[in-house]
Amino acid sequence: MTDIAQEMPWLSRAWQTVQSRVANDRLPHALILAGERGVGKRAWAEAVGGLLLCDKPQNRESGQPIACGHCKQCELLSASSHPDIRIYAPEKSRMVKVDQVRALSSFAVASPQVAHHKVAIIDRADQLNINAANALLKTLEEPLPDVTLILLQESGRPVLPTIRSRCQTLSVPVPANSEANQWLANRVQELPEDERPSADVLAKALMLSGNAPRLALEYATGDFIGLRDAALERFKAFMKSKVPIGEAAKAFKAMGLEDSLWLFETWAADLARLIAGGNGQDTDAADMLGFLARTTPAWRAHELLEMVKESRAAGVYNASPELEASRLLIAWQKLMPVKRPAA
């Protein structure tokens, strides 16, 4: 079985920590793994699950265990049909619901079906609604020896303190550009030749993803980049009052709420960095953001970030992407310097 640390070296520190704790029988009953969107948290969690379920884990020369890849448990995992590992993720509401956590609780108290252990993964534990979070607390407060919970958290998205206090937290970094580029190039080579993105597209995908490799692969092979470029052009035109707000908002609506909020959040964070004298992530928006940074106080950039958080919370209740984009666009346009009338 592939070692996740070899496939994604930036995960190695968190992976080796778990390997060591498994080897010494000191793995906690609940872990939180925090990291940026698209760095491989889900793959890491599934690798940990594979190690915990494997019947015959092998020791590497370093003494660290790894799943064998050949036993019954590993074969079931490889076929995505193992009954003793469950993954719970946000559904259409963009939240992890209380019914999902209740299902997790029932899974936790039942006996393992074919393995000696069970693993439950909550992908986006930062997206638990309040009822789901309270339900999860009951499971965390009564840990069972044959169950391990792995909670995945996106950086900048808080997990309730009552949940965090009952878990041990690990974090994974975003890889350096060279490391991310090498991983992305290797993955692209696995695609049919006529479906491989160009070098320019890969570079742009890495830039937009902030070097998060798996997100960059999603961008490079999907329609995000084209939609984002259209939204940026409409954004610039709206800021200069060349197009009405409805036309600008439609470009963001085409992206969907989550991706459009991600874009607005990136620009607001870049604006804050530029105001502080640093560099932005989105080089295509640098001219516009640099112009605004010269006259915008830092608190205005942080106000924009808070507005994105509010829009993301509204998304739970199926808020209109077009209306949320309009609200944010108006706030952005207010940053434009007001021209003084000629004397």
Write the layout of secondary structure elements.
Blueprint: H1 4-7, H2 12-23, E1 30-35, H3 41-53, E2 58-59, E3 65-66, H4 72-78, E4 85-88, H5 98-109, E5 118-123, H6 130-141, E6 147-154, H7 161-164, E7 168-171, H8 177-188, H9 199-209, H10 213-221, H11 224-239, H12 245-253, H13 257-275, H14 286-293, H15 298-315, H16 321-333
Parallel strand pairs: 1-6, 1-7, 4-5, 5-6
Antiparallel strand pairs: 2-3
Summarize this entry quickly.
The chain is built from 16 helices and 7 strands. It has 343 residues and is an alpha/beta fold.
Major sheet attributes: 5 strands, parallel
Q: What count of helical segments does DSSP give? A: 16
Share of β-strand residues: 5-15%
Structural class: alpha/beta
What letter string, H or E per element, gives the SSE order?
A: HHEHEEHEHEHEHEHHHHHHHHH
Envelope shape? globular
Unreliable stretches covering 5 or more consecutive residues: none
Average per-residue pLDDT, rounded, comes to 92
Q: What fraction, in percent, of the residue positions are helical? A: 40-55%
Strand order of the largest sheet: 4-5-6-1-7
What is Rg? 23 Å
Distance between the termini: 75 Å
The total beta strand count reads: 7
Molecular structure report:
The protein is α/β, with parallel strands linked by helices. The chain is 52% helix and 9% strand. It has 16 helices and 7 strands. It has a 5-stranded parallel beta sheet, sandwiched between helices. Strands 2-3 form a two-stranded antiparallel sheet. A hairpin with a 5-residue loop joins strand 2 and strand 3 (65-66). Helix 2 runs parallel beside helix 3 (41-53), helix 13 runs antiparallel to helix 15 and helix 13 (257-275) packs parallel to helix 16. The longest helix has 19 residues, at 257-275. The termini are far apart.
